[in-house]
Amino acid sequence: MRTLVLFLLCLISTAALAQDSATTGWSAEHLYRDPDKARVLAMILPGAGYAYTGEYLRGYGTWVITATGVMIGPLWVSNDCSILTWNCNRASRLLNILCGGFLGAAAVVTWVRSVRDAPKSAERANERRRRRELRLHPTISVPESHKGLKAGLSVAW
Questions:
Q1: Cα 105 to Cα 6, 85, 108, 127, 141, distances in angstroms
Q2: pLDDT value of position 18
Q3: Where do the H-state alpha helices sit in 20-135?
Q4: Lowest mean pLDDT among 6-20, 43-57, 93-107, 115-129
Q5: Phi/psi class of residue 25: alpha, beta or left (left: φ > 0; alpha: ψ in -120 to 50)?
Q6: Is residue 23 scored above 70 in pLDDT?
Q7: Cα separation, 104 vs 16, whole angstroms
Q8: Which residues have CB under 8 Å from 85's CB, separation 6+?
Q9: Which helix or strand (DSSP H or E) is residue 155 part of?
Q10: What whole-number distance in Å separates Cα of residue 143 and Cα of residue 11?
């Protein structure tokens, strides 16, 4: 008998806490993806902000361009001979510097753009999630003739 009373008290108290919205700590508008977290992830690893927000192809492309430019660009600049013909002259050296510099610059620009665009990507993900949620809005209209009550349910798509 004692355990039954204790069980019922626990059940009632948890039901009462479930109705109290102040104890949850969550706001009514909880974000699906945090823009600040997406920016920090994009700063740490190129493309990680996009992957966090669900844009996997864009994140993978950003990572590939940045990693290629950072790894191959300096190697290409430091090479004295032409990569394709193995001719060692001044023209091939200048071409290597230009191509390696272009790869390095493309890597840096891509990384900076991903850091700047990651919060916008999080906002796009939040908007996509908001559009997918099913929202029900009860609509009740009373006609002027008072012959009957019309009630309906509107669904926002």
A1: 69, 25, 5, 33, 63
A2: 47
A3: 35-44, 48-53, 56-78, 90-132
A4: 6-20
A5: left
A6: no
A7: 60
A8: 92
A9: strand 150-156
A10: 45
Which residue, 54, 15, 48, is CA-closest to 33?
A: 54
| Structure confidence at residue 137 (pLDDT) | 61
Q: Write down the domain spans for the chain.
A: 32-156
The pLDDT assigned to 43 comes to 93
Predicted local distance difference test score (pLDDT) of residue 116 = 94
**Both tokens assigned to 126:** 């939040």
Are 103 and 72 in contact by the 8 Å Cβ rule? The answer is: yes
CB 37 within 8 A of CB 115: no
Nearest CA-CA partner of 139 in 124, 149, 126: 149
pLDDT digits (tens, 9 = 90+) for 77-93: 888 776 666 777 888 88
Tokens of 45: 């690893």
State the amino acid at position 123 in one-letter form: E
Return the amino acid letter for 107: A
Are residues 38 and 57 in contact, defined by beta-carbon separation less than 8 angstroms?
no
CA angle 61–30–111, rounded 5-degree value: 20
